[in-house]
Structure formats: structure tokens, C-alpha cells
Amino acid sequence: MLKIEGLTKRFGQKLVVNNLSFRCGPGEVLGFLGPNGAGKSTTMKMAAGFVAPSAGTASICGHDVQTDKLNAQRRLGYLPEGAPSYADMTPAQFLNFIADVRGLDSRSRRDRLTEVIELLHLGPVLDQSIETLSKGFTRRVGLAQAILHDPDVLILDEPTDGLDPNQKHEVRQLIRSMSEEKLIVISTHILEEVEAVCTRAMIIADGRLLVDDTPANLVAQGAGDLDEVFRKITTSNASPTTEDRS
Length: 246
Fold this sequence. Notes:
This protein has 246 residues and is of the alpha/beta class. Helix content is 40%, strand content 24%. The chain folds into 2 domains: 1-75 and 152-162 and 181-246, 3-Layer(aba) Sandwich (Rossmann fold); 83-150, no CATH class. The strands form 2 sheets. It has a 6-stranded mixed β-sheet, sandwiched between helices. A 4-stranded antiparallel β-sheet has the order 2-1-4-5. It starts with a strand and ends with a helix.
């Protein structure tokens, strides 16, 4: 459902993503991990078709995100870093706008809006402007727009950022409930989240893939918890080349 081949991104002389290749299928929840500046968000933006790669390709359900972008993005739900939205809209207005963009018919719109609003407990803030919402509610509005059209592939950048422990638990339950038939890719710094919901974990540093395994195998091989394994892998492998420093 997601195919990445030789994905590379440079910003000027800086190599941010370095020849990444991997494939994911339905039923997988992939935890995409790495230290700050590792290239996680840039990779997700390229996979979603919002940033053009310097080299390589990404496809969603067989549709190349650059040459067949519209069909690729029809199958995709994307929560970017920061959950951008229109600050002067209310959640109700914003989600109706997203329903228009996604081409939901009147019945699908009504049913999906009701379902998503209930799933993410947005009822109390539906008519409040987004700019006045807490970080947690803003994040939930962003997640609501990502799942509104019931996509086959979800790419979620820090989906529980700003949520309290109860809200994090609810979002993790939601991810688990959606994962049987979908592919879900999660970028997160919360390693307990990876252990809780992910079936697969990839660790990158300096734009390079270092590890691709199950969370359980990583913990078993590292003889410690995932936090310790992550530190060991990223500190022992993150040594930028002269080209990367420039």
C-alpha cells in the first residue's frame, strides 16, 4: 500500500533523506522513529506528495505521488506536523470544508462527520474557532480531517502530541481499531506509543535507514527497553559525513 524506492531529498547542499527504500502493507502499523533532524517529517511529506523528492519515488496503492498525485491522495489520510488548519474556522466548518474537498456525498458526509466527531470527542468545541482551541483539541481536529474519508493509508506525524494521558490512550485505541484493514504510519518521539500500537518499527538517523524490525525484536535484541535500544542505535550510527555537515 506504500512503496518507497530510493527516496532522497536535498535542501541546497544538505542531504536530509538519503536513499530510503521500504514497503508496507495493509494491517501494519509502522512506527517511524529517529532523533530530531533525522529526516522523518521530510520523508512523510514526500510520501504524502507534499514535497517533491530530489531522487526516488513514492507510491500509494499503486499510484505515484508525483505523477498520479490526485489518485494517490484520494487513498491517503495525512496528519502533518503541527496539524495546520484554518484558524478562523470552527471545527464544524473546517470538517465540512474537508468533506467538500474529499467529494463526500450528502449521506456519506453526514454519517462520517457524526462518526468522526464522536470518535475524537469534538462535540464540545464544534462551534468554537480553531485558533482558540487547546493544543490537544487542535490535534484532534487535525486527526479528524485525516480519517474523515476513511482512507486506506494513514500517515500521522506525532498524532498524540499535546494530548493528555487519557486522550493519548483513546487515540491509540482508535489507531488499533483502524489498523486491521489499513496501513498506518506514525512518526513519534514517544517510544511507549510504538510498543503500544506498532507492529513494525523503523529507525532513521541522518536520513539513513538504520533498523527495520518489530518493536518486540528490537527490545529482545537490545536487552533493554525500547528507549535504551533507540539511544544505542542512534548514537552509535549517527556520524554525519563531510557532505552532510556542509
